[in-house]
Amino acid sequence: MINENTNANELEAARQLGFINELRARFELEYQKTGRRKTYHIETFGCQMNAHDSEKMSGILKQIGYVETDTEDADFVLYNTCTVRENANNRVYGRLGTLGTIKKNHPGMIVALCGCMMQEEAVVEKIKTSFPFVDIIFGTHNIFKLAELIQTHLDSDRMIIDLWKDTDLIVENLPNDRKYPFKAGVNIMFGCNNFCSYCIVPYVRGRERSRNPQDIINEIKALAADGVIEVMLLGQNVNSYGKTLEKPVSFAQLLEQVEKIDGIERIRFMTSHPKDLSDELIEVMKNSKKICRHLHLPLQSGSSRLLKLMNRRYTKEDYLSLVEKIRNAMPDISLTTDIIVGFPGETEEDFEDTLDVVRRVGFDSAFTFIYSKRAGTPAATMKEQVDEELAKERFNRLLKEIQQSCTIASGRHVHSWQKVLVEEVNRQDPDYLTGRLSNNILVHFAGDKSLIGKIVDVYLEESKGFYYMGRL
Ligand code: 5AD
Ligand code: SF4
Question: Which residue among 199, 200, 275, 313 is best mutated to probe the pocket of ligand 2, counting the most ligand atoms within 8 A of its Cβ?
Answer without folding.
Answer: 199
